[in-house]
Amino acid sequence: MKAFKFDLVLQNSRWQKDTFVTLNDTGRIENISTEKPVDIDIEEVKGYCLPGFQNSHSHAFQYAMAGLAEIHPNSSKSDDFWSWRETMYKIALSINPDQLEAIATMLYAEMLRHGYTHVAEFHYLHHDKEGKHFENKSEMGERLLSAAQNAGINITLVPMFYQKGGFGISAQPQQRRFISKDLDGYLSLMEASSRSVAKFEFAKLGQGFHSLRAVDDENIRAFFEQNLGDISFHIHIAEQLKEVDECIAYYGKRPVEWLLENTPVDNDFHLIHATHLTDQETIGIARSGAYVVLCPSTEGNLGDGFFPLKKYQEVGGKWSLGTDSHVGLSPMEELRILDYGQRLTTHHRNQIISKTNGDSGHFGYDMALLSGRAAMGDLTNDYFKVGESFNAIVIDSGHPLIGTSQLKTLLSTLIYTGDSSFLLGTITNGDWMVKYNRHLHFKKFTSNFKKVMSTLKIR
To answer: Is 41 a catalytic residue?
Structure first.
């Protein structure tokens, strides 16, 4: 056993001073108390401890192209999500399993450095470069699991059912690595993925469709007739206006409207983006108990639009955050972009609050944390709980803005002014993974990543 002593520990709605967190040999919390444990090695940390952030939506392979889609040689030609997607396909077709593992390991190490302790990996790069199954159908997923273990981040692997090239359109050649031709093919992939997840201690399994346009309605309905267990379900939806228009043309309904009417949407559902909604759809998601996953830096980068956050929160809607294409990796930045985008469209400042919590920093953090946990398949509401693994970030109490903040403004100071430089480090499952803004294996991971980038000639 071992223990940490922190200057402050955040427990739901309050900061607790001079607190000891005692752990067993597996990194699970044995006790949280202001009383000093006896006969145990204690590490004193001059910092403030709070639960790590949850990254509810990631495409790890896209980290290889982060920052590379911002040159527009023909300024008269429209550049949007759909043209960006063609560049993404080229990257997806070029990466082998070893390279994916190196890219994901580097990415996950950087997530940890920025304060994420968990990631939901929305995974659809399933097959080899020719579109054929690997001997292990979950080979690519297993490489992501291995990357998470190497980096020290907790992962929920979410293998995607990806069948079509669009509404009523066959899959395209550039999508060949993603495709399960029918539901049986997807269920076989899920079985293989379940076996892979079982090999890793700090991994969970999710499920989902890439999007409504990527799976036909017959397979959608058949999927929900299966009993796949009480695990999180993820889907991209209503991200782009073109997607909405094509759904109306094909189904006669808007994407979220169709989903609510034709599937058993409940609190296992995590709707990614859901950018373009009517008031009725917005209310419908909230009343169903489903969550929305917002990815502000990516949504801004792709020009998706603004989610109707104010209306959604007014009816009790819950949301979490993801980094998606990884053009941004700071959870504090994601929260700021989300809030400021709403302020710019409404011309009011009080956007991320509730009727009972007017503290934007605490409300935003609490929403992102607990809804993010749900996206991982974890419904724990206590920030730190005896019996649970200890996953935390530690704020540097010596930072000038942090060190001079009152307790009531401490979390808002972190959220609205902070970045990774505010953090002393990140702890997952009881062990330091990041200290003083560097992952413990930064040099090794960076060396491997650079070799892959050199071979792929992407950057």
So the answer is: no
| Residue range(s) in the chain whose domain bears CATH number 2.30.40.10 | 2-51+382-443
Residue count of the chain, please give it: 459
For the domain spanning 2-51+382-443, the CATH number is 2.30.40.10
Which two three-digit tokens encode residue 44?
Answer: 């004193």
Q: Give the Cα separation of 28 and 86 in Å (integer).
A: 44
DSSP 3-state of 35: coil
H or E element: which one contains 57? strand 53-58
CATH 3.20.20.140 placement within the chain: 53-376
Is residue 273 annotated as a catalytic residue, yes or no? Answer: yes
Residue bearing tokens 């009343």: 287
Residues whose CB is less than 8 angstroms from the CB of residue 157 and which lie 6 or more positions away in sequence, other chains included: 121, 123, 141, 144, 145, 193, 196, 197, 203, 204, 205, 206
Instruction: Give the 3-state secondary structure of residue 141.
Output: helix
What digits encode the pLDDT tens for the residues 213-242?
999 999 999 999 987 778 999 999 999 999
Instruction: Name the DSSP class of 452.
Output: H
For Cα atoms 446, 433, 51, give the angle at the middle one, nearest 5 degrees. Answer: 130
Neighbours of 410 (CB within 10 A): 21
Answer whether 161's CB lies under 8 Å from 76's CB: no
Closest CA to 2 of 34, 35, 26, 33: 26
Catalytic residue among 126, 273, 276, 362: 273
Per annotation, catalytic residue among 268, 324, 339, 366: 324
Q: Is the dihedral of CA 72, 75, 80, 84 positive or negative?
A: negative
CB 232 within 8 A of CB 377: yes
Angle, CA 406 vertex, CA 404 and CA 409 arms, to 5°: 110
pTM comes to: 0.97
For residues 400 and 418, give the distance between their C-alpha atoms in angstroms, rounded to a whole number. Answer: 11
Nearest-angstrom CA–CA distance, 286 and 212: 20
Tens of pLDDT, residues 332-356? 999 999 999 999 999 999 999 988 8
For 130, phi then psi, to 5°, come to -95, 0
The CATH H-level (homologous superfamily) assignment of domain 53-376 is Metal-dependent hydrolases (3.20.20.140)
Pull the structure tokens for residue 360: 């934007």
